[in-house]
Every structure is written in structure tokens, then in C-alpha cells.
Amino acid sequence: MKVLLLSMPDSFEHMPTVAIRMPNGGLSSIAGNVDPHHRVAIADLVLVQRNVREVLARLLREHDPDLVGLSVMTFQRRTASRIIALLRAWKPALRIVAGGYDPSLAPEAYQGMALDFIVRGEGDLSFRELLRALEQGGGFDRVRGLSYRDGEQWFHNPDRPVRGFEDGEIRLPNRSARVLKGYTLLGRPVDVVETSRGCTYDCSFCSIIAMRGRNFHAYSLQRVLDDIRDARDRGVRTIFLVDDNIMLNVRRFEGLCRAIIDAGLDRLDYFVQAMTAPIATHGETLAPLMRQAGFRYVFLGIENILENDLQFLRAAAKNTARDNGHREGNATLRAIACLHRNGMYVVGGMIVGNPDDTHESIQANLEFARQHVDWPYIQHPTPYPRTPMTKDFEERGLITNEHLEEYDGTTAVVRTRHLEAEEVEFLRWKAERWMKVRHMPAAFRHDPWFVLSHTPQMMAHTFRGSTLRSLLGMEEERKTFQRYKAIRRQERAYV
Fold it and tell me: pTM (2 decimals)?
């Protein structure tokens, strides 16, 4: 069977394609876990944002797929619906399946689209079984985690249980199935590697628990090293570890760092997501080991510096420093200092615009980011399907925007009890642009040629909506902000 797997072109504001173009690791895992006689092609449409229709038409001609699968996040739902309509119009007999976070958590939203199947939850095994059922001409009711259409009626099979990795059933990704090129991070070839899945925390903003429950399963270190080698041998120079929460087992992560060093894979640059508490608690030994292994950027889940906001986000536990079992307050500053002492950069993940936020509380978080993080990744709370946060905002009547294409984290779609959503977004936008500029010298030291050759494009993206008058302070900033908002709306029209 000929299969075409697509990720959507919609990208996050904090990940402009001029600087960051990541592959969809889930699709390469699915491609690696189908039966080997199938012909699978993967197209990450983020690589072709401005000519999606033309590329789709070419892919259909060249690969003539029997089945097309789409990986979709909530803010990509509108784009996915348009792509599905195009595919159905171009090839009416085509089988189409959607999967990923949004179809998994809101399958009812997809039943009105011209789909045949929805894969709910992690699709490595469900997709394999779906292809087997298609080859056999039926038996869809036996595929766990599958929703399927029969005439006008939809049927939803039981969820697929979360499984561990001890039996080796989940095989390595198939990167050779990718048919588009150009994955880069600051000009360096980049790929993603997964060392574990799952999380045992219950942060109110996160979809992971709704997707797979509270659990944590890790691959063997040998399997992880094989995955890294596969990426390296394809020319990759930067690895982003995409684990939901790799710091749940600090000793294992230390073992991974040592294994990377011992295997001679420490000449790559590594980017990892981390909690503040483990870094603060174990940083004196962990941080030097990370740096020796090649870790350069750490996305630190700071979330917020105010205790009340951390309580709302259900993120206080993972941001509390501990010493011999005793709580020692917020772990953020200690974690940042430890990473900085060991030559690593902090990408500060923060969330502002929570229900009780005021102008002063937002400014306090922005000022903290300005002083302490190297690259801001500041978002607004967003009511994704089935998260505890969504129920909370609905009960409080604070959701002001139901245009899902704007649920990208940097568009404020909920208000606080004290501030309108647009005011919250304006405060972040106004401060954040200049924080990003401040990191340019550090980026230059690491990637001088890329920064020299791409500074105009990066500055143009960061200051979209600005004019010479606005940069000179001769125009009201809110006018610039409105131009930026208009440009952002236009950018979302990918299809």
C-alpha cells in the first residue's frame, strides 16, 4: 500500500521557519512501525508554508497514495480541514486518516470532515493495524484506538492501552521516508529524538495526561544511542530531545549523558526540555555532565514566578527546590544559575495571562524573563481540548476567542479577571521583541555565518508591523501592535 503522511504547515510564533524548521517525530515513528512492504512518504509541510497547494498536488502525482494521514494540533485544525477537502476533491477514492493531539482529544470535531478514520492516542501500533485491516478488507472494529466511518455513522473503538517499551515493539523511526528537505535550527541540520514518553505531573495546561494518562516509560539507552546515530549519519548536527518530561528520572538522564559521551556522540549539539526542580536539586553534578555531553540549550519549564499562578497551573510541585527532602522555595533562579555556570543557554518557558493576573503580575514575570532567561518562550494560557485549564476557564466565562487557528500560545484567547485578552497579549509582545534581540550576540558566537546572513529576515520577523516611525518612537505602540496582529492573521492562511 502507498501511504503519504503529512504534518501541517502552521508554525508557532516562537519558532519562525527562518530559524527553526523541525521534523514531526511522530510521523517518522509511524513510518518506522508499519509493515515493511508498504511504501511510505512523509512530507512536513512546515518546509513549504508558502506553496502548500502546489506541493500537495505534486506529492499526489508523484506518490499516488492509497491512504493519506494527517498529524494535527488544535491550532492547525482549520488548515487540516482545508487540506482534507482538497485531497478529497483531487482524489475522491482516497482514504484519509487524521491523528495527533487534536483529533485524539476532540474526535467529534473531525466527524464532519471528509475523513475515513481517526487514530486516537499514540499511533505507532494503531496505524500498523489499520493498514493490515485495509489490506484484509475489513476488521476495523478490532483496531484499538481507531474511530472509523461506516456510511454516515462513526464508530469509536476502545482506547489502546499505554504500553511500556521493554519488548522492543516500537521500532526506530524511519527518517528515509521524508521526501522534503531543509530541517534546520539556526542553520544547522536538526532532527528530533525521543528517549521516553509520558509524565506523572498534572499541569492544568497540558494535553499529555488527557492523551495517555499519568505514566512514564523509557526506551533503553542503547535504543536511544542507535536513534541518535541514525540521525547523525544522515548529516544532522543538532538533536532536540522531545520527551514529555525527561527529568522524571534524573539518574537515567545522567546515565544518558554518560552514554552519549562514551559513544562519542558528544560532538553534536543537544536541546532538551527540563523542569526547574531537578536542575536546582541535582545541578551541581548534572549540569557539568550535560555540558560535557553536548547540551547547549535547555528549555526550562519556569511557567510563572508567582506562587498563586503556579497553583492555578498546577505546576508548583515541579518548580519547588528541595534539600534533603525539605522544600527550599522556588527552584527557578537556582536552576538558571546552574545552567549558566556551565555554559548552557536557558529558553524560558513562561505563561502569563492567568485568571487572577493583573498588569503588575504580568510585568513581574516579563521583568524576570528580561533579567534571567536567554531566549523568551512566553505564552498565554490556552484552552486546549480536555485539559483542566479549559474547564476552569469555561466555568469562569473567561474565554473570549473561539477561532482555533489562533490557539497557538502567543495569541491571547482568554481574559483575566482584571485585563482584556488583547491587553495581556500586548504586554507580552511589547517586551518580548527586545528580549529576543538581546540574544543575538550569543547566537552569533555559536553560528556566526547564519546570524550574519539571516539577521535581516530574523529582525523582520521579530518586528513585524514596525515602521521607521514606530522604531523611533514617533508612533503609538498600539498601532504597531495592530499591524502585527493583521500580519499574523494573514500568515495563518496556508491553504
Answer: 0.95
